[in-house]
UniProtKB/TrEMBL annotation:
This is Uncharacterized protein (DUF608 family). SUPFAM superfamilies: Six-hairpin glycosidases (SSF48208). The lineage of its organism: Bacteria, Pseudomonadati, Bacteroidota, Chitinophagia, Chitinophagales. It comes from Chitinophaga polysaccharea. Residues 64-369 form the Glycosyl-hydrolase family 116 N-terminal domain. GO terms for molecular function: hydrolase activity, hydrolyzing O-glycosyl compounds.
Length: 855
C-alpha cells in the first residue's frame, strides 16, 4: 500500500509539473524551515515560472539564446529581441553587443517607429559599457522599443513575442540555426536566421517599413574595411591586412524580399551622428538607397516596405552568414609538424566554402529544407511525456553546441574548450575529464564524438600509453610533460566502448583496440603497480589536483574501464584474463575497504607508494609552504577528500552505465552512496554555507548540490579545491544516477534546484557556467533521458534497450543514423523513426528480449 501511495504521489507531482509550478519543490524546499517561513516559501513557490514554459517579466531579464553552428561562432538572441554575445572571430566575446537592430516604422504617422525589441533589462543600465563614443553608431538602448517581450525556447528555435499598446501591430520573432542530429556538417554552418512576423491588428490598411540596421562591427582598424553589396542586403567586410590575415572577416545580412532597399553607407560623422541620422530616417518611415563606398562606411541598413490589410500577416526573413577563414589561435607544444596542417586554427567551414558569398548563397538556397529538417528534430524532441524540468535541462544545455565553447578545425575534427571566458577560451583541449560528463554529442553527432577518441588515442597518447588530457590546436602530437588524468584516461576507454556500440563500426574498433590496450596497461602500471585493483598512486583528476591513496571515484573509473576492455577484447578474441583478475580484486576492495557502510570514501595515503612524497611531486597550485608542511604531517597531502561524502564518489559507475556497460559496483551500495549524496550534499538554502571558493555558481538563498560534505566528521583543513562549490554537470549526473536506481523524485529534486537558479532572473537560462560560460560538463543533463527511461540503441546487436523508471513514456532517441521517438505503453515497446534510419530488430526490456513495433 505504501508503494502505491508513493507511486500516486510521484505521478501527481509529474502532472502538476506539466501544467504549473511543481508541488515537490515547495514541499522539499520548505523542509527544516520554521512554520511561518515555510508558509512564505510555499507562497513564493506558487508564483515561480513553470519549467519548460515562457520567460516573461522578471524571468526574461538575462535570457540570451545562442544561434550559430558547431565550431562556427555564434550570436545570441536575447529574450528582448536584442542581439548580443556576438562571437564570430573564433574567440568568445561575451559582452559584444554591437549596434545591430531591427525596427518597424508606421508610415503616415511620423514618430511612430520602434526598435523590434522589448525594454532594456535593468542590469544593462549602469556603467559605460558600449557607450558608443566615436563614429561607429553607438548603443541603441535609448531608442523607443516595445513595452513587453516574452521568450519561449524550443531548441534550436527561440520564439519572442513583442507587444505595445500604442501600436496596433502584433509582432513575433523566430531565431534559429540548423541543428539536425547525425548531420554534423549542416549543424556546423556559420549562419543564423531571424524571422519577423507582423499582424495588422487595426481596422484599416496600414503601410509599414521594416528595417535591419547595424554598425560595421567586422571592422578591424582603419584599413581594408568596406560594406559590400549582396542580393537584398549587404556584407560587412574586412580584408586581410599585412602580417595579419586573421583580421579578414565578413558578415552578410540579407532578406528574401525582392523589393529590399539598401543603404550601404550610414551618414559619416562624429560622435553619435551615424545613429542619429539612421533614426531620423526610421522615425519618418522613409528608406535610404545609398551605393557602397570604398571604405569607412560606419554601418548599413536594409529596408522592406510593405502593406497589410486588417488581420493580414507578413513574415520577413533576415538571413545572416559569416566567414572568418583564419585565426592566430595556436595552443600547445608539439613534437613535430604534421604535413599539410595549417600553423594556426582554421575553421571547418573554411574548407567547405571559399567565400562569404558561397556561404550566403548556400544558406539562401537551402534555408527551407534545413529549417524543415531542424523543425523535425524539435518536434520529435518535444514530443515527450518526460517531466518538463528534464526537457528544459537537456535542451538548455544543447545550446553549448551553438556557443563559442565548441570548435571544429579545418579537417572537421572536433576540438573544444571547457567553457567560454568573457573574452577568451576557458581551459583548452577538449579536456578529457570534463568532457567525460557530456553525453549529448555521442548520441546526436556520433562522428564528431569519435573524432575525439581518435585524437585522444593517437595525437594525445605516446608509445608508453601516457595520454595527455588536453589536445593541441591545431590538433598535433603532444609533448608529454604533465600528469595523465586518471578519470579522463580511464573514462576514454569506456567511451570507446560506448562509441563502438553506437556506431556498430567493427573496423574502427579493430583499429583502435591496440591503442586501447596500451592505454589500459599504462593506467595499471601508473596507478595500480601492485595489482590491487585500486587506483592508489597519486592520480590527477577533474578537480585539478592529485588524490593520494585509493579513491572510490577513480577506482570506479578503473573498474568501468577494465570491464569495457574485457568486453571489447572478448569480441575481438583477445586474451583478457589479466584484466578480469584485476576487475574482481578491485571490485571486492572498493566494496569493502572504501565503503564506510553508507557511502564510498578515500583512504589517504602518501607513504609506501612508488611516487615520491607530496612535497617533491608538486603539481600546479600544490606547493607546500611551512604552514602546509605542518598540515602534511597532521592530515596528509593537501586537497584530498578522505572521509567525505563526494558527489562524484561513484562517478565511474554512472559513466559505465551511460556507456552501455553494467555498473561495476554493487547496486545496493551504489544506491546507498547516492542517497547519502542527496541527503548530505543537496542544500535548499546556502545562506549559511561557507564557500571561500567560486561562490557565484550558487549562493545565498539558492539551493544546489555541493561537491562534497563531511557528515561523519573528518573534514580536512584544506580539502580538495572546489569542494564547497556547486557544479551543474555534477548535479545532473547524480540526478540521472539516482533515476537509474529508481529514486526518480530525488533526482528531479536536484534538477529543479539547478534550473531554479537558471530561471532568467539572475542567470541566463541557456548558459550554465562553471569555469566559463556554456560549460561543457553541463551536457551531463542529456543522461537524464537515459536515467528515466533506460533508452539506448546498440548498433552492434541492432537492439533497442528500455528500462523505465517512470512507467509508460514517450521519449526522444538519437542514433548514428537517425532519430525518432521510443514509446513504452502497457508493456509494449515501439519505435517511430522521424529522420534517417534506426535499424532495430528487437527490444531488450529490463534485460529481457522482446519484439519491437515499428511505427
Amino acid at each position: 500500500m505504501k508503494k502505491d501511495n508513493n507511486r500516486r504521489s510521484f505521478l501527481k507531482n509529474i502532472a502538476i509539473a506539466s501544467f504549473g509550478v511543481t508541488a515537490l519543490p515547495s514541499v522539499a524546499g520548505a523542509a527544516n524551515l520554521p512554520v511561518d517561513e515555510e508558509k512564505e516559501y510555499n507562497k513564493t513557490a506558487e508564483t515561480r515560472r513553470r519549467f519548460n514554459d515562457v520567460y516573461a517579466g522578471k524571468y526574461n531579464n538575462r535570457a540570451a539564446f545562442p544561434i550559430g553552428g558547431i565550431g562556427a561562432g555564434m550570436f545570441c538572441l536575447e529574450g528582448t529581441g536584442a542581439i548580443s554575445h556576438l562571437s564570430v572571430r573564433h574567440n568568445p566575446e561575451m559582452f559584444h553587443e554591437p549596434a545591430m537592430f531591427a525596427a518597424i516604422s508606421l508610415k503616415g504617422t511620423p514618430g511612430l517607429a520602434r526598435v523590434l525589441e522589448g525594454p532594456v533589462p535593468d542590469w544593462k543600465k549602469f556603467g559605460q559599457r558600449d557607450a558608443g563614443l566615436g563614429g561607429t553608431g553607438g548603443a541603441t538602448w535609448g531608442l523607443p522599443r516595445f513595452k513587453t517581450a516574452t521568450l519561449q525556447a524550443r531548441f534550436p528555435f527561440a520564439h519572442i513575442t513583442l507587444a505595445d499598446p500604442q501600436l496596433p501591430l502584433q509582432v513575433s520573432i523566430k531565431g534559429w540555426s540548423p541543428f539536425i542530429p547525425t548531420d554534423e556538417d549542416h549543424a556546423s554552418m556559420p549562419v543564423g536566421g531571424l524571422e519577423y512576423q507582423f499582424t495588422n491588428k487595426s481596422h484599416q490598411e496600414e503601410e509599414y517599413v521594416f528595417s535591419y540596421n547595424t554598425r560595421n562591427f567586422m571592422r578591424q582598424g582603419d584599413a581594408g574595411n568596406a560594406i559590400k553589396p549582396y542580393a537584398n542586403g549587404f556584407i560587412l567586410s574586412q580584408a586581410a591586412v599585412a602580417d595579419a590575415p586573421e583580421k579578414q572577416g565578413h558578415f552578410a545580412i540579407y532578406t528574401s524580399e525582392p523589393n529590399t532597399v539598401v543603404d550601404h553607407c550610414w551618414f559619416r560623422g562624429n560622435w553619435f551622428d551615424p545613429l542619429t541620422m539612421v533614426w531620423n530616417t526610421l522615425k519618418e518611415g522613409n528608406t535610404r538607397n545609398t551605393p557602397p563606398v570604398a571604405q569607412d562606411a560606419p554601418g548599413a541598413s536594409l529596408f522592406v516596405p510593405f502593406r497589410l490589410q486588417p488581420g493580414e500577416k507578413k513574415t520577413i526573413r533576415v538571413m545572416m552568414a559569416w566567414y572568418v577563414p583564419d585565426s592566430k589561435l595556436r595552443i600547445g607544444d608539439t613534437v613535430g609538424n604534421q604535413p599539410g596542417a595549417p600553423a594556426y586554427y582554421k575553421p571547418w567551414y573554411s574548407s567547405r566554402f571559399d567565400s562569404i558569398q558561397a556561404v550566403a548563397d548556400y544558406w539562401a538556397q537551402h534555408y527551407n529544407t534545413l529549417q524543415e529538417n531542424t523543425q523535425r528534430f524539435t518536434d520529435t524532441f518535444y514530443n515527450s511525456s518526460l517531466p518538463p524540468e528534464v526537457l528544459e535541462a537537456v535542451a538548455a544545455n544543447l545550446t553549448i553546441l551553438k556557443s563559442a565553447t565548441v570548435m571544429r578545425q579545418h579537417d572537421g575534427r572536433f576540438w573544444c574548450w571547457e567553457g567560454s571566458g568573457d573574452s577568451w577560451g576557458s581551459c583548452h583541449g577538449t579536456c578529457t575529464h570534463v568532457w567525460n560528463y557530456a553525453q549529448a554529442v555521442p548520441h546526436l553527432f556520433p562522428a564528431l564524438e569519435r573524432s575525439l577518441r581518435n585524437t585522444e588515442f593517437n595525437e594525445n597518447q605516446n608509445a608508453e600509453g601516457h595520454q595527455g588530457f588536453r589536445a593541441n590546436l591545431p590538433i598535433s602530437p603532444l609533448v608529454h610533460n604533465f600528469h595523465s588524468a586518471a578519470d579522463g584516461q580511464l573514462g576514454g576507454i569506456m567511451k570507446i566502448y560506448r562509441d563502438w556500440r553506437i556506431s556498430g563500426d567493427y573496423d574502427w574498433l579493430k583499429k583502435m583496440y591496440p591503442l586501447i590496450k596500451v592505454s589500459m596497461d599504462y593506467c595499471i602500471r601508473t596507478w595500480d603497480p601492485e595489482g590491487k585493483g585500486l587506483v592508489e598512486e597519486p592520480h590527477h583528476n577533474t578537480y585539478d589536483i592529485e588524490f593520494w591513496g585509493p579513491t572510490s571515484m577513480c577506482t570506479s573509473f578503473y573498474l568501468g574501464a577494465l570491464q569495457a576492455i574485457m568486453h571489447m577484447g572478448t569480441f575481438l578474441h583477445q586474451d583478457i584474463s589479466a584484466y578480469s583478475s584485476l576487475y574482481q580484486k578491485g571490485k571486492q576492495a572498493l566494496e569493502t575497504t572504501l565503503y564506510n557502510g553508507e557511502f564510498f570514501i578515500q583512504q589517504i595515503k602518501w607513504t609506501g607508494l612508488k611516487a615520491p612524497d607530496p612535497v617533491k611531486a608538486q603539481s600546479f597550485g600544490t606547493q607546500y609552504a611551512e604552514e602546509a608542511l605542518v598540515l602534511l604531517k597532521k592530515e596528509g597531502p593537501k586537497y584530498q577528500y578522505g572521509e567525505g561524502c563526494l558527489s562524484d564518489g561513484i562517478l565511474g559507475a554512472w559513466i559505465a552505465r551511460v556507456c552501455g556497460l553494467e555498473e561495476p559496483v554493487d547496486a545496493a551500495k551504489t544506491k546507498s552512496h547516492l542517497l547519502a549524496v542527496h541527503k548530505y550534499n543537496l542544500k535548499k538554502d546556502l545562506s549559511t554555507h561557507v564557500n571561500p571558493q567560486r561562490s557565484t555558481y550558487a549562493l545565498g538563498g539558492e539551493g544546489g548540490l555541493l561537491l562534497c560534505s563531511w557528515p561523519k566528521g573528518g573534514m580536512l583543513s584544506l580539502p580538495f579545491v572546489y569542494s564547497n562549490e556547486v557544479w551543474t554537470g555534477i548535479e545532473y549526473q547524480v540526478a540521472a544516477h539516482l533515476m537509474f536506481h529508481g529514486e526518480v523524485e530525488k533526482g528531479l529534486e536536484i534538477v529543479r534546484a539547478c534550473r531554479q537558479r537558471y530561471d532568467g532572473t539572475v542567470r541566463n537560462p541557456f548558459n550554465e557556467y562553471e569555469c566559463g560560460h556554456w560549460y561543457a560538463r553541463a551536457m551531463s543533463s542529456y543522461g537524464l533521458l537515459q536515467g528515466l527511461t533506460g533508452v539506448r540503441y546498440d548498433a552492434v546487436d541492432q537492439a533497442l534497450y528500455i528500462d523505465s523508471r517512470i512507467g509508460d513514456f514517450t521519449s526522444f532517441i538519437s542514433t548514428n543514423t537517425g532519430f525518432g521517438t521510443v514509446n513504452w505503453k502497457k508493456g509494449v515497446p515501439s519505435l517511430k523513426v522521424a529522420y534517417g534510419t534506426i535499424p532495430a530488430t528487437h527490444a531488450v526490456v529490463a534485460g529481457k528480449k522482446m519484439s519491437l513495433q515499428l511505427v
